[in-house]
Structures are given as structure tokens and as C-alpha cells.
Amino acid sequence: MAAPGQNLAVVVHRAGDLRLENRPIPEPGPNEVLLRMHSVGICGSDVHYWQHGRIGDFVVKDPMVLGHEASGTVVKVGSGVTHLKPGDRVAIEPGVPRETDEFCKTGRYNLSPTIFFCATPPDDGNLCRYYKHSASYCYKLPDNVTFEEGALIEPLSVGIHACKRAGVTLGSKVFVCGAGPIGLVNVIVAKMMGAASVVVTDLSASRLQKAKEVGADFTIQVKNESPQEVASKVESLLGCMPEITVECTGVQACIQAGIYATRSGGTLVLVGLGPEMVTVPIVNAAVREVDIRGIFRYCNTWPVAIALLASKRINVKPLVTHRFPLEKALEAFEATKRGEGVKVMLKCDPTDHNP
What we know:
It is found in: Cell projection, Cilium, Flagellum. By secondary structure, the chain is α/β, with parallel strands linked by helices.
């Protein structure tokens, strides 16, 4: 057990080397706040950095604290901070622009090439007891929104950004590929935005059961069907081809199925990230005017997500299936790697393990 003054942190040193270490408690700058962390979700990217030491061009060169789905309590504020005070419960947006470039000026700050982002090399994340962050990117949680819901705003934001880019609206028919945490938040958000019916595919029966629980109308357990066969199953379940497909796996066959499944004139949004090069039926998409859009994280989603959670219009609580104290982080990472449950939550405050 770490003494209260210590800052226990989950640190990846290189591929396969994950450690629990004590770090100094940071001092907040003028526009920063120091947080006592409460709940931090484990993301697939955290596991990937631990297992492989890199994601694409982002390579772990120096020890890095993991974690970016997080909430906590303000314990100290910098001299320039006016909207937060010690005791405030906050959700953390992990991406903070370092400069006001043209992307920030147009409101698409997630595309700023120099952005700071928790647990993306070389930037440290917040899977620790104490963490400092830009005050502007810490959002006060209403009393009726739990710390865990606050931490889940990060994955939820991916769903909000993806469904906005997809143009989900009243009556939309939507196909979601993949029923992991990101597929599930897309189901939740698509239904919230007025989708009439949502069909979800996955390999795992238990994940598809969870998709049903959070609002999916139809599910398809994929065995060894071809992408075209998956597309025709989607069409027969919906009664028509979906106008919108949200691809959350990054798997080549799923992207192919996404193109074949989408109605002519519709939109395919690519959320999942796989290999850099994939073979897809691009001519099929082109001649049918299927728009293919990418997303990179999210922007301007935290206030929306907090409003939805506070009004009880959406429920993300079923996503959390496992909880571990910070001291057992290595066990938690092993469980996540094995694909157990949906979202694994680490509890960083030894005095408060409540949701």
C-alpha cells in the first residue's frame, strides 16, 4: 500500500515491461490543476503500448505513465485558474493543444499536430494517484454523475464524434462493426441521436449480448462469412441497406463488409485502427457514392457528454464490468489483455473505491 504522500503510477518502460512505480507528486502550473485521481479506465491502446511498445509512429522511447480515460478531484489550483476550486470533481479531456494553430482556430483542435495527449508517447497519462492537467480541459461533474461515468466520457466521446461525422439523425439505419467498448458507445450514441434501428456484428456472443443490453436492435455473430455475406445479412435484418456504417475494428474484412453493406449515397465512418495498408473495394464505394470518413479521437464533446449523463438520457454504467484497486493494476491489465468483460476500471483513490 502506498503511503498517502506517495504517487503510485502505472508505467510502461518498453514492450512487455509494465511496472507500478512511485513518482513525485507534480506541482500545477499557473493554468493547471492538481488532481487526486479516482477512476481510470483501461483502453485497448494502453494494452497495445504495453504489449508492443508502439502504435504506428508513436513509439515508447522513455518510461511513460499509461491511462487517459479518467476522472478525479481537484486538490490544488494554479494561480490563473478561476473556474475550478479544491474539492471539485472533474472529468479529464486528455488532448490539450499546445498552440493555437489553424486547426484550433476552426474548432478542430484534435487535428493539431503538436497536441498533448495523455499516454501517447512522449506524454504521460493519468493512471496514478496524483496528476496535473490543463484546467481548461478539466470539466466539472454534476453531483448526479459518478466518477466512473466521468471516466467513461472519453470512450463515449469517440461515439459522439463518430456519429456526428456519420450524420446519424432521426430514423437512420445504422450498422456498427465490432461490439467492444467503442462499438458499444456508438450503439448508445446512435440510438440517442435518433437511429431507428442499429445492427451490430462481432465474433463474441457475450459482447453481442452486451450490445443488446445497451440498445442494439439486431446482432450478428460472425463466424466465417465473406464480407459480402455479412453485408447481405445486415440488409436482411434491417429490411434495407443501412445509410450509415460505423467500423470499430480496423480489421480488413470488416472494412470491406462496411463498404458492401452501406447503401448507395450513404456514409462509412472508420473508427477502428488496424494496419496502415488495407485492401478495400474502393471502386464499389466510388461508383455508389459511398462517402468514407475518418475520425481522430474527438473534439468539443465533453460538455455534450456531461449534459447527456446529467439528464440521464444515456446510460453508460453497464459498460463497466471489472474493477481493480490501483495496486492491482498489473492484474487488471492481464484481465483486459485476455478480453475479459467490457471496460476494466482502476480505482486510484485508496480511501474511496465507490463508482
